[in-house]
Amino acid sequence: MGAIRFSTRLSLLFGGLLITSLLIVLFAIDQVAKSTAMNRIEIALQTTVLTVKELRRQRISKLQQSVRLLAGDYGFKAAYATADEITIHSALENHKNRLPSVDLMLLCDLDGTIITNTYSKSLTGQDFPWPEILDMADESETGEVTSYAILDKVVYQLIVTPLFAPDIDAWVISGFRVDADMAGALKNITASDITFFYATDALPVVIASTLDLNERSAFLRFARENEVNDELYRYPTPEQTRIGHFLPLNESVDLKVTTFVGKSLDQALEPYHQLTRYVMWIFIISILAFLIIIVRAARHVTQSISELSDAAIAVASGHLETQVPITRKDEIGLLATNFNEMVKGLSDKEKMRNLLGKVVSPEIANKLLQDGVKLGGEEREVSVLFCDIQGFTHLSESQPATEVIKALNVFFSEVSDIVESHHGIIDKYIGDAVMAIFSAPLEDPNHAENAVRCGIELSRCSDKLNARLPQGMNAGYRFGIGIHSGSVVAGNIGSANRLNYTVIGDTVNIASRVEGQTRVFDTPLIVTEATMQRCKGIEFVKLETVKLKGRKQAVKLYTVKGI
Prior knowledge:
Layout: H1 6-72, H2 74-81, H3 85-97, E1 104-109, E2 114-117, H4 131-139, E3 145-151, E4 154-164, E5 168-177, H5 180-190, E6 193-198, E7 205-209, H6 213-225, E8 233-236, E9 241-248, E10 257-264, H7 265-316, H8 331-359, H9 362-371, E11 376-390, H10 392-398, H11 401-421, E12 424-430, E13 433-438, H12 447-459, H13 462-468, E14 478-494, E15 499-504, H14 506-521, E16 525-528, H15 529-533, E17 540-546, E18 555-560
Parallel strand pairs: 14-16
Antiparallel strand pairs: 1-2, 1-5, 3-4, 4-5, 6-7, 6-10, 8-9, 9-10, 11-13, 11-14, 12-13, 14-15, 16-18, 17-18
Helix pairs in contact: 1-7, 2-3, 7-8, 8-9, 11-12
């Protein structure tokens, strides 16, 4: 797998940080929204329960007041005093019709016998079906009580009111049905689903509900598995999750009616889910926008870095004219500026190296550039070669100076190439002579052999050089070459403002004197015994032992066999 680009890593880094931050924020918003929603739903349900309680209380209270008026009505008492069932029934029916919320009315004596009723004639003369309700009324301080009862499979809420004449002489029972209309009316007021039910040994029985049939089945399973208390319940249905409170309505021995006030949790949370979706879309758009921005920004940054990288590769390949365009004013722009200045410095240094290499050898130029200008030297063992153009003095006298310079350049170019090819360096040009050094400034253990082989090649190239001279200047010139090996002091000599890298010592003087002996012995190449002893692979012929000018001790001279 290839390395991931810097722009990609940068985009992934910032993109990952943004996405992580947004996910944390989204999670926090979702948790806060859900918590807030649940609190509001619970408060709304509690308020709904209180509202249902209050509406039920008001309805019962209003009905009780109406029945009290009937029980205290003089006309009704007069009709009751006749003991005529038809007269009493007519008065009871007349009063019921004035109360639109009442579905039935009964009149019972203290023994629990139904004197008359507005529900069915068959009940007249029968025992009151729910004697425990009358017992509860008789035991109460006011003689009034309310409870639920089932009549012909219909649940009624009954309200018992005493008839005073002047003591309690009978019971007036009024009631209204608990049905779908009642549940629907409560739903319209409370904006909650209402379910009336009562418990049995098997499944609870729904009296009336605003739920559909599928949800009623789910509710019955839920109601059977949970106790009726004041907790907040939630249960699943095939379509959604519902939440709500139980509200017990009475504690009758035979019938315990309970209301469940509930809401759809999904519908209640929908505004918050919608908010979450909006926030999610905002986050997605933000992430996409950020990714576009960060990718473009990363490319903008890495483009400059890539340009610097490409420029660095070009500089490493030797293209020192390379420059990076400055298009920014930030740290990267400063880096590009510094890079350009660095390359310019390298270019100037290379120009100096090239220029210096034309004045001195490349090896000396590199040493000066690396070590700086330091006066002084070190003792080294080297071989020194002097090469002189014999007969060139006559050429200088007979030819114009410009032509002489051209001829010298021809000679020196060839000599320099041959010297450098044998690991030597040109120390200096002395008129029509050349001084070359082997093993300085770079150490060469084979300096003597390299110097001799260089001398051999120089001695054999004089004919080729004569052929390159201009017409009229070819006078059969040849080289005189002298070589000596020994210790010298090599280093920078002069001043800090003007210096020369060279070697000094007796070895240099001997090599110069040996070159002069080439005219005496009429041979192009002469070496000393010190050089000969360092060359194991070359055959030499001894010439003579001579005393050189300026030296007391004689020097043994040799030439290469076959030269």
